[in-house]
Design goal:
single chain, mainly alpha, 10 helices, about 50% helix, about 10% strand, globular
């Protein structure tokens, strides 16, 4: 898997075809599927999802975070394009597990349910703040933050960096998680998406917040 911005839609199969079944980065759909496949190796899906849930609960300091089974089922029912992406990667030898096994775990991973407060707290471990949980090494934290800045909003990641100036990750459910280094985790949610699959009002809100606080990694 690569580390570069995609320049294509988050669910594009075109770029995957041009690049021999290797996803451009872990934040587009193909990359997220490949990441789930790699993490599944040697684990039953139930074990992997249990570990994922424990990690998120520890990061957020809240044991009520869970996977919404209805959302996971909906993802499964409407996930034909994700199946196509996974089978395409499998054709190029870039999948370890059977496609259905990986996609089942992936759809459940996409259905983690939490509030904005929980999401903001879950981002704290990426801030490097003195009181933040130490869940990954400093080197890994830097790499995650770099990927969020470059690719966290998929195709318009550069525009988000220009407007907001902070690392962020968006989801098609309308949520946005933002990391202000050494300061705070931030979350916004509004389900109305723009043409590029990111929360329209959520992006506007985060931009307004960044301007009001004058928080930016570019100052």
């Amino acid at each position: 898997m690569g580390r570069e911005p995609s320049g294509q839609a988050f669910n594009s199969i075109l770029q995957l075809e041009h690049e021999g079944g290797i996803p451009r980065n872990p934040f587009i759909n193909a990359g997220a599927i490949a990441t789930t496949d790699a993490m599944l190796a040697g684990h039953a899906p139930r074990e992997f999802l249990g570990e994922l849930r424990r990690f998120i609960r520890t990061a957020a300091g809240n044991d009520s975070i869970h996977i919404n089974e209805k959302v996971a089922a909906s993802e499964q029912e409407t996930g034909d394009l994700n199946l196509a992406l996974a089978y395409f990667m499998a054709t190029h030898g870039n999948m370890v597990n059977p496609v259905e096994r990986t996609l089942g775990a992936y759809f459940h991973q996409c259905a983690v349910e939490m509030s904005c407060i929980k999401l903001a707290r879950a981002a704290l471990f990426l801030t490097g703040a003195g009181s933040a949980p130490r869940l990954v090494s400093p080197a890994r934290r830097r790499r995650i933050n770099a990927m969020m800045m470059l690719c966290g909003h998929r195709d318009p990641s550069g525009d988000f960096a220009y407007r907001v100036g902070l690392r962020g990750k968006s989801g098609v459910g309308g949520g946005i998680m933002v990391v202000a280094p050494a300061k705070a985790g931030i979350a916004a949610w509004s389900p109305g998406l723009n043409s590029q699959g990111n929360s329209k009002l959520g992006t506007d809100a985060v931009e307004t917040f960044a301007r009001a606080t004058r928080w930016s990694v570019f100052d």
